[in-house]
Design goal:
CATH class of the largest domain: Alpha Beta
CATH topology of the largest domain: Rossmann fold
Number of helices: 8
Strand order of the largest sheet: 2-1-3-4-5
Order of helices and strands: HHHEHEHEHEHEH
Distance between the termini: 35 Å
Strand content: 5-15%
Number of strands: 5
Helix content: 55-70%
Shape: globular
Radius of gyration: 16 Å
């Protein structure tokens, strides 16, 4: 927490996210893939980033006097997936740009995404999946939103996704990172 607060004295929240936290996660992920570090180190890194993200969120909340929302966006990690660091980073970035984010959490049932979208007249939904085994749940969530006839655009992201895969599952947008998610939000809200 202290390290994050010290960084925030010199740099803004976007810099800390884009230039410190996200690249650090990338390094840890590559080291894990190569077998240079193991699951306990991966989990410890994830927990450290969570503390840093919460510190950034608290700082933004204290400094944010502008209560006007540019639009409501739902974010959720799909059913069967409990990995939410990427979703949390996207949430903070969107909030930082003035969007009201309804975070449904992780391992979110399809019906919950559909019900919240209907109830809150949501124009944009962001779905996250880290594991290949849960990508089918992402497609089922998109199909359920479409079946309800909601005028909702969907962006998807996660380590296992590609632009092509996003198109194949019926998503409107593929978000490779938090910056892309903000650009997608800007496209959907004036």
């Amino acid at each position: 927490k202290d390290a994050t607060l010290n960084l925030l004295k010199e740099y803004d929240e976007n810099y800390v996210l884009d230039e410190v936290l996200i690249p650090s996660l990338d390094v840890v992920g590559k080291k894990y893939d190569k077998g240079e570090i193991f699951l306990p180190q991966l989990i410890q890194s994830a927990e450290t980033v969570k503390v840093s993200l919460n510190t950034i969120k608290e700082t933004l909340a204290k400094n944010n006097t502008n209560i006007v929302s540019k639009g409501k966006i739902i974010v959720a990690t799909v059913k069967g997936d409990i990995h939410d660091i990427g979703k949390n980073i996207v949430k903070i970035m969107l909030e930082n740009y003035g969007y009201e984010v309804i975070d449904l959490g992780k391992d979110v049932p399809i019906e919950e995404v559909v019900n919240h979208s209907k109830k809150n007249n949501i124009q944009l939904v962001g779905l996250s999946a880290l594991m290949t085994t849960t990508v089918h749940s992402m497609k089922e969530t998109i199909d359920a939103l479409r079946k309800e006839g909601l005028n909702t655009k969907v962006f998807v992201g996660g380590a296992v996704l590609t632009e092509e895969y996003a198109k194949d599952m019926g998503a409107d947008y593929y978000s490779k990172d938090a910056k892309t998610a903000v650009e997608i939000a800007k496209l959907n809200f004036n």
